[in-house]
Amino acid sequence: MSKVKVLKLQPLFRALKLLPVIPLMFVADAGYARVLNPEEVVDIDSTTPVDNYVLNGDSTLNAEGATTRDIMVNYSTLNLNNSSVQATGAIGVWVVGGWANITGSNIASDRTGLVVSNDANGLSSSATVSDSSISGSETGVKVNGTSELTLVRTTVTGTGATARGLELFAGTVKAIGGSITGNGDAIRIGGSQYSNATLVLSGTTVQSSGGSAILVDTLGQGPTTANISVLDGAQLSSAPDGYLMNVRNGAEANLRVGGSNTHLVGDINADGTSTANVVLEDFATLTGHLENVQSLAVNSNARWVMEGDGSVENLSLNGGGVQFGKPGEFYTLKVENLSGAGGTFYMYNDFTQGLVNTLTVTGTATGNHSIKLDSMGTEPVAVGSTPVVHIASGDASFGLVGGGVSLGAFDYDLVQHAGNQQDWFLDTSSKVISPGTRSVLALFNTAPTVWYGELSTLRSRMGELRTNADKAGGWVRAYGNKFDVSASSGVAYQQVQQGLSFGADAPLPVGDGQWLVGVLGGYSKSDLDLSRGTSGTVNSYYVGAYTTWLDEQSGYYFDGVLKFNRFQNSSDVELTGGDKTKGKYNNYGTGASLEFGRHIKLTDDYFVEPYAQIAGVVIQGKDYDLDNGLSADGSRTHSLLAKAGATAGRNFNLGEGKTVQPYLRAAYVHEFANNNKVEVNNYTFNNDLSGSRGELGAGVAMTMTDKVSLHADFDYSNGDKIEQPWGANVGLRYLW
Length: 736
Description:
It is a single chain. By secondary structure, the chain is mainly beta. About 5% of the residues lie in helices and about 60% in strands. The strands form six sheets. The protein has a 24-stranded mixed sheet that branches. The protein has a twelve-stranded parallel sheet with strand order 1-3-6-9-12-15-18-21-24-27-30-33, covered by helices on one side. This is Outer membrane autotransporter barrel. Keywords: Signal.
């Protein structure tokens, strides 16, 4: 070899000393490469003959749409755009203490596609590759020293049977989008005299078909510390017998996983000589088994989903959570030390068989943590006998999400065992009825108030009828009511009812026109609010008949109503702890109302109308289940209501057949029925609306023409167990 050729290759030989794992060859015959002189600028394109290039001394190669063989960049700049590099030697593009900007290009080699490394004097390299593809039969890309490589929407592939996509001996690699694929380990980190390596994967897919997604290994070259970030939807995938991250031979790996669209599935392993630390944050999830992990931090709504029993030396929770597998799986988690401000342990349980996940802290536990247990509708067995949490020492506190867990008919809280302050059990002594039970009781309790809410509009309607008792007509009325039912009735809830009634009536041909009969129909919807996310709905459809009699001379009157209802009942339950359940059923009701009173005319068109009323309804009993297994059996519901009161008002004659009748009403009401049994999972509860209350009302009736009249009525009542903050109805009657 001539002296000139040797001088040209000296920078190459110096750089090769930094990468002993890279074969000592660069091009098929380096002596025939095109060598750029210091500060020389060369432009090539599709018309330029295919050649090898060596860039020296701050020279620049600009390739636009070109095809080349091997390129070496030594303290120089390469701009490669929409070009192709097909290596004939060991390396397609080698950046040694230089700079490279590669866009829309393809680099391929039988050995290594791209190398980014320091030069002999320690000068680092920097390369950015965008919208390109890089492949090598041994390795797609190698990075060493303190050099940096940025990959943007770029595909990196190791094509050989055991090839790697990326080997990061030291330095920094940032990959944004794109993919890194290997038939062996997809990425290997470590094995350099430089101890630190940084890998950032943002939205990048890393896939291994024959090994681990990421291998961290010293390769006998001294200590290796790898700082790895997997962010913004990046994906790691390993072979069935591989790991997401495998740390061995005395290496240390610090893995950070973040982003609401980052969800990793696979295992993380460290051998007995190595260290693995994992941080999950910003809604990211990791599903898999952790082996010999020294520390795990789960922060800011991130979650680790265990697969199998788990063990972590140091666990820190700051707003994150640990999930014990999937529903129906029962695991134990052993932690040496638990710390952090607090997080949530998502545990599954089947207390019908005495099965529950368990957290054990063998060292010190600190922080305020929450436990999320499964709600269920069936009754538990021995809920207070199995500890949910055990700690050896520390001042940590544990409480159930939502303040309890719904198990069958009752809610249970988590308390420390009286004889062992290190164990937390479910408390059976302070159980309260569950939201599912409350929804059942409310639905069975609601039918009478639905029925009476519909009836009150008809009573106002009949008062209007008596002003035109000798004429036939049709009518329609819209109404709404609100009822607040107290816990003393069995369960507290709020009911808002709205509906529409309509009907027609005519005088009987007997009795001198004093008798009038009619038919009615209607629909109402009642929405129940049981607080804390639990609600119910009752859709009521009804038909009926009514009659009224008025003796014009004495003022005595009688009203009678017979009404049949079909109730469609449904409940939407948010159980304690946030689980959901629902159920529905249909049943029927029949009721009647009888009222007797007297219309007394006073001077100046004033009047007073004392009355007494008795009404009763029977609602069909029913049994049904919520979809979480809670079983409800309601007996036949009864109501018997007595009322005594008076209405007072005045008639104003406006002329031309128009009259206005404002009025006030007051009444005393008493409910006699006090024993409506409901069974929930064989526990018996009693719905009891019995008691007295007072009613106040006001309204106005207006005769607009000899055929059209309007009516509006407003009510308020309050008393034992039930309050009606408001009731309102408005209607129209047309005579023919």
